[in-house]
Request: fold
Amino acid sequence: MKNSVKGLEGEDRVSQYFVDNGYKILKRRFRSESNEVDIIVKRGDTVAFVEVKTWDVLGMESLERSIDARKRSRIRKAASCFLGCHPEFETCRVRFDLVFLSRRMERLDHWENAF
Reply:
């Protein structure tokens, strides 16, 4: 299966995980200029910007390294753009999460406040 299709299936699985855990999905695949966030969710007074990695080939350490400073910067810029367009969230706490999902989607690791 192509990586892009598998990635979308992974985002579907992660979105359902967040809904099942009491989050509201605000936006999926949010893009601003050349920056993007996979999923934006809200629960209580917190808005979380979530990067999803569906990957089995490398170990967890390699996955962590795949979210390098450049990638984190792009996610933060997209988050800033989203928040600037949505003043209703200006009083919310903001966090950046990572979700690692095994390619067969049987294992999901959610890291809150990852960066």
Q: What stands out?
A: The mean pLDDT is 89. Strands lie at 24-32, 35-43, 46-54, 93-101, 108-111. The longest helix spans residues 3-20. The chain has three helices and five strands.
